[in-house]
Design brief:
Elements: H1 2-7, H2 11-26, H3 30-49, H4 54-68, E1 77-79, E2 83-90, E3 94-101, E4 106-110, H5 115-125, E5 128-133, H6 139-142, H7 145-151, E6 156-159, E7 169-170, E8 176-179, E9 182-188, E10 197-203, E11 210-215, E12 218-219, E13 222-223, H8 231-242, E14 249-252, H9 257-267, H10 272-286, E15 294-295, H11 296-302, H12 311-316, H13 322-334
Helix pairs in contact: 2-3, 2-4, 3-4, 8-13, 9-10
The structure holds zinc ion.
Protein name: hydroxyacylglutathione hydrolase
Catalytic activity: an S-(2-hydroxyacyl)glutathione + H2O = a 2-hydroxy carboxylate + glutathione + H(+)
Organism: Chrysodeixis includens (Soybean looper)
C-alpha cells in the first residue's frame, strides 16, 4: 500500500521517502523503525490528501535517524605505497571507500550513500574530492549521489547503469580513467544487477599496489545475489577477478564476512583456511573492526563462488559442471541460516 502510494508521488518526493524508508530499516535501532512507521502513516495521510507539508516532516525524520544511528564498524585508514583507502562504514553493513592519491591529494569516493560522512572525511584529510565511483544503482550504494553532486560542484559521477543518480560518465568494460596518478580500470560484472561495475585501481610506478572495489559482486568469501543475471555471468565475473594479480586488495560493498565464511565452511568442511579465516573474522567483528580487505589470492582459497571448479565444491553441489555448481551453491546460500 505504502509502495503504491509512494509510486504515485512526484519523482523527487518519492525518492526522499524511499531513502528514509531504507535508512529506517537499515539502522540497527528498532526504535527508529518504530518511529518511522508512525511518521510514515502521517506522510501517507498527507500524500493522499495531497496537502503541503511533506518537507518539514521529512527533515525531522532525517534528523531523528541521524541521531540514532551508530556505525557498524570502526573507520580504518589503510596506507599503501602511493594511495590510501579510508573505510567509511555506512547504514547497517555497507562500506563506502575514500580513495586518495597521495602525490596529488586527489580523491574518489566509492558508493557514497551517506554524503555527510563522506564530506567530514574529505575535510579531515584535506583532500580534493573529484570523483564518485558507483558500483551499481541500488539505493544503499548510489542513494547519496544526487546530494553529494549538489554539494561538490563539478564532481564526476561514474557508473555503468542509467538508473544511477547524477551519472555524468557511463563506463563500460575496460574503460580507463585517471584520478591524480591513479589508474582506474572499469570491470563490467553484470549479475547482481545488469549494470554492475567493479573498479580496479593501480598506480603506474614501482609501488605495485593494486586494489579492486567489488560492490555487490564479490564479497569476502561470498558473492552477491543474482537479481538481474545468471550463474554463467557470475562465473565470468569470478574469472575476471581470478585474473587480477594475487596481491590485489579486495574492498567489497558489505560486511557479510562471518555469514559468508560460515556458509563456505558448510560447503568445504575440510578447508582449514576457511576455518581459520572464520575465527579471525568473528574476533574482528567482536572488536567492532572491519574484515576488509581480503586479497585475490585469499579469495581463491576460501571463496566457494571462486572455487566452483574445485572437486570438493562440485561434489558438495552433486555435479561435475562449474556453472551448475555456481547455480546450486548460490541457491543454497539464499536460504542458508
Ligand atoms: Zn546491491
Amino acid at each position: 500500500m505504502l509502495a503504491r502510494m509512494v509510486n504515485s508521488l512526484p519523482n523527487g518526493l518519492s525518492q526522499q521517502i524511499t531513502k528514509l524508508y531504507f535508512q529506517a530499516y537499515s539502522t540497527s535501532s528498532s526504535e527508529a523503525v518504530g518511529m518511522y512507521s508512525k511518521k510514515a502513516k502521517g506522510l501517507k495521510r498527507r500524500a493522499l490528501a495531497n496537502t503541503a507539508g511533506y518537507y518539514p516532516h521529512i527533515h525531522k525524520l532525517r534528523l531523528l535517524l541521524r541521531n540514532q544511528r551508530k556505525a557498524h564498524s570502526t573507520s580504518e585508514h589503510h596506507q599503501f605505497g602511493r594511495m590510501d583507502v579510508k573505510i567509511l562504514p555506512a547504514l547497517k553493513d555497507n562500506y563506502m571507500y575514500l580513495l586518495i592519491d597521495k602525490r596529488t591529494n586527489q580523491a574518489a569516493i566509492v558508493d557514497p550513500v551517506e554524503p555527510e560522512t563522506v564530506l567530514r572525511a574529505v575535510c579531515e584529510h584535506g583532500v580534493n574530492l573529484t570523483t564518485i565511483l558507483t558500483t551499481h544503482h541500488h539505493w544503499d550504494h548510489a542513494g547519496g549521489n544526487q546530494e553529494l553532486a549538489q554539494k561538490v560542484p563539478n564532481i564526476e559521477v561514474y557508473g555503468g547503469d542509467d538508473r544511477i543518480g547524477a551519472l555524468t560518465q557511463k563506463v563500460e568494460h575496460n574503460t580507463v580513467l585517471n584520478i591524480g596518478n591513479m589508474v582506474v580500470k572499469c570491470l563490467y560484472t553484470p549479475c547482481h544487477t545488469s549494470g554492475h561495475i567493479c573498479y580496479y585501481v593501480t598506480t603506474s610506478d614501482e609501488a605495485n599496489d593494486s586494489i579492486v572495489f567489488t560492490g555487490d559482486t564479490l564479497f569476502l568469501a561470498g558473492c552477491g545475489r543474482f537479481f538481474e543475471g545468471t550463474p554463467e555471468q557470475m562465473y565470468t565475473a569470478m574469472s575476471i577477478f581470478g585474473n587480477l594479480p594475487d596481491n590485489t586488495k579486495v574492498y567489497c560493498g558489505h560486511e557479510y564476512s562471518v555469514q559468508n565464511l560460515r556458509f563456505a565452511n558448510h560447503v568445504e568442511p575440510r578447508n582449514e583456511l576457511i576455518k581459520n579465516k572464520l575465527q579471525w573474522a568473528i574476533q574482528r567483528r567482536e572488536d567492532g573492526k572491519p574484515t576488509v580487505p581480503s586479497t585475490i589470492a585469499e579469495e581463491k582459497e576460501i571463496n566457494p563462488f571462486m572455487r566452483v571448479v574445485e572437486p570438493g565444491v562440485m561434489m558438495h553441489a552433486r555435479t561435475k559442471d562449474p556453472i551448475d555448481t555456481m547455480r546450486t551453491i548460490r541457491l543454497e546460500k539464499d536460504s542458508f541460516q
